[in-house]
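User: Hello, can you help with two protein structures?

Assistant: Certainly.
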Amino acid sequence: RKELDRAMVAHTDTAVGNGVDAVVEKVCNDELPVHSLERELGDCARAVLVRREWLKRQPGVASAEAVGRVPHEGFDYDAVHGACAEMVFGYIPLPVGVAGPLLLNGKTYQVPLATVEGALIASTRRGCKAITAAGGASAAVLSQGMTRAPVIRFPSAIRAAAFAAWMHDPANLAVAQEQFATTTRFGRLTSCRVTVAGRYAYARFVCATGDAMGMNMVSKGVSAVLDFLSAGSFGDLELLGLSGNVCCDKKAAAVNWISGRGCSVVAEATIPGHVVESVLKTTVAAACELNVAKNLIGSAMAGALGGFNAHASNIVTALYLACGQDAAQNVESSQCITLLEPANGGADLHVSVTMPSIEVGTVGGGTILAPQRACLEMLGVAGAGQEAGSHARELATVVAGAVLAGELSLLAALSAGHLMRAHLAHNRKPAAP
């Protein structure tokens, strides 16, 4: 292994060669800003080579040789620049597996999942098998809308209350919608609810954003609305921050659990008893009993906020990484309540997941990267749909369907006492000699 590491570093050093060393010296001497090498050199791949050599010489890097082992070749850095990441010096490969076939809303999907957790994909695939053998699952989008809630301060609580009353008037909302519409061809302001705390007003704008996840689109539109209001009836408003945490982005919050954010989705399936026993290796009664004790009572005892599930976060994160979504939005996107109930007199198993805040997009962000776009193409949802927002909605249903499969399989394994056996089989192997 050490010989291989040395060979990789040597290859990197050779690749640098020819004029790059001189650039590295300029960067190290602060004659060239390291953060803007792409612009200064006009070559994103060359900028990465320079930055790698610069990084090897920096304090805080315990092993210069380790920098050389981070892969960097064969990547489209032009796509990343100005869109996905800064100070880039390489990339991190992740294994991508597939869970399926998943029959959902009459369509078959093979779901790509990027993860380093052994047994996760195998377990989710087993859940897909059970669902498909049962005739498939159904999913519906209950609502769709991205939110942004700026924090605004007024001279008095009375003025903050007046602002809330103004925004809640449908006629005034129409005025705000006109201002929002001046900033985008694809976005639309649909509603706004203001929460007041003393002199502070938190206006939670809800917006349709087409097939984009839409945070930037919404922020731009909300800024235009506030500029209009501050130049008119509310010249005394003071914008403290475009996000005031009532949005609520990348944090577990009751407002998302109750009101939703992104796509609110429900998915369900009825699994015949013989499939429960032959595929999932458990019984209807045992699975239902565990779900109540673990996901409902156990989660309540833990004070969970939207965490009434077994491991929705596992599937959401793995699918997000594979499909170019914002992985940090896993926090609210994996809010989920899983329900298992006996059906048909206890002979069969009804399972459902309700997920109020699945935040996904099929255009923009990480979806512009070729591998991530390829995973979206696998699912048939890459890019904009024929109807605005249709691809994002379909992707959200796939997320819920995959979570349904993952929940079903894990709860079955736990109720049958097979969880540790599965992890030992899929997540452990002897150390290399």
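That covers the first. Now for the second protein you mentioned:
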Amino acid sequence: MSDVSAPTSDEVIALEKSYWDAMKAKDGRRTAKLSGQTSLVTGARGVMSIAKDKMGKMTEDGGWALHSYEFDDVEVATPAPNVAIIAYTVRQSVTMNGKSSELRAADSSTWVRGPSGWECHAHSETFLDEKKAA
């Protein structure tokens, strides 16, 4: 039997926010540290398997900026003491290739605690159509 206890919902939310804060700061070292050796990512571009070092470079490079974000409807599950899954909706203010926009999406991340601490091994983002929600 393991002495390791499952994280609280607040701890998992703090982990997820630390990743978003690193993206906002374009801190590739931090996003790489918080990412698994290989992370699975799904979104508008399909399915990608991204190495830890590439995740860091992607954070720092490119014509994008995350200005602000806000989580809503947060759900957390801990199926095992070293595994945490978080799902939520997020409003984000971004600039992509010089164009500013406000986006709303449904996101989820799977975090695994290992020898290096907590790392995100999978992340999914689906943009929500505000017109359909009305």
